[in-house]
Design a protein that fits this description.
With 313 residues, the protein is an all-beta fold. The protein has no helices and 31 strands.
Length: 313
């Protein structure tokens, strides 16, 4: 893929993540080390929607128009390294426990929906995506505690936005991060950060997926060579999995058949997320908004494929 020209919208963000391109032309995102939810206007002006205790991470708009938030509980500590901001080691004194929250965009009111599933605490929820039925899938990235020399094996979950039901979809998974649905809603994808892989599962009913047999490679869409870590992702209208890539800073574009993997460089080794918006009102959703978390910027590019409008936007 040819180099794409990026336009900076705003800077000075404290580790931006979870961008949502809103119909009014603004972008709502989280600042993980704000910690807060911020609305960015097209002219770069920033407006705080809500202050969030813990670590706001992935976000999505639900069927009621509220914002639904993965809160990792503050499992990372901020490290300023020159002009870059990095997510640092687990600090127990900062950690409030992982949770899924509902945020009223108009008032900023925050409500905890889920802190556990079947008695098992959520550790560090990371990203979520709504299906057409009004439920949402989300990843629990888990905690990697260097001091204790431990790392969690966690799960993919499915929950309802009214707080009434949460079920485990897949276990065990290792460092799951971004999550998305194919354009027809029949395939679930998620990125494994530390293995540099994108996993896939066919959905049979809401919250239920087919599980490949041990040794069956069909559950893995693609794995990246060398030292490339994967963060959040979005699916474009061509069915490509567009996954933000750490270290090799940019967006890796993986077709639905796993072939012809491409890379869009951004110049920020902590490129964390991408979403699509209808910037020109054409209905094509060809504007891709990308969070450059190391340098604290939100940028946009014209995407070579038609984007995909998320449910309930």
């Amino acid at each position: 893929m040819a180099a794409l020209e990026m336009t900076e919208i705003t800077s000075g963000l404290r580790f931006p993540e979870g961008p949502i391109a809103m119909p009014d032309g603004t972008v709502i995102l989280v600042e993980m080390f704000g910690p807060r939810i911020t609305r960015v206007h097209p002219d770069g002006r920033k407006e705080t929607i809500a202050e969030i205790e813990g670590g706001p991470n992935g976000a999505a708009i639900g069927p009621d128009g509220a914002l639904y938030l993965c809160n990792n509980g503050g499992c990372f500590s901020p490290i300023d390294f020159g002009d870059l901001l990095f997510p640092g080691p687990f600090d127990p004194s900062r950690y409030i426990g992982g949770r899924i929250q509902r945020v009223d965009i108009a008032t900023g009111a925050v409500t905890d929906l889920y802190t556990e599933c079947d008695g098992r605490p959520l550790r560090a929820p990371n990203d979520l995506v709504f299906d057409t039925h009004g439920g949402f899938y989300f990843t629990d990235h888990g905690i990697h505690d260097l001091g204790a020399r431990t790392a969690d094996l966690t799960s993919i979950y499915y929950a309802l936005p009214d707080g009434s039901s949460i079920v485990e979809v897949e276990f065990p998974v290792d460092s799951p991060n971004g999550i998305g649905l194919s354009p027809d809603g029949t395939m679930l994808y998620w990125a494994e950060t530390h293995h540099g892989r994108v996993q896939q599962r066919r959905i049979t009913s809401p919250g239920v997926v087919e599980h490949p047999m041990p040794g069956d490679p069909s559950g893995c869409l693609a794995g990246l060579p060398g030292y490339q870590l994967l963060d959040s992702l979005a699916i474009d209208g061509a069915g490509n999995v567009c996954v933000a890539t750490l270290a090799n800073g940019g967006v890796t574009v993986i077709p639905a058949d796993g072939s012809a993997i491409d890379h869009v460089a951004t110049g920020d080794m902590l490129t964390t997320n991408i979403c699509f918006g209808d910037d020109d009102g054409s209905g094509e959703y060809r504007t891709a908004y990308i969070t450059l978390s190391g340098t604290g910027k939100l940028v946009k590019v014209t995407w070579p494929h038609r984007g995909l409008r998320l449910n309930f936007l």
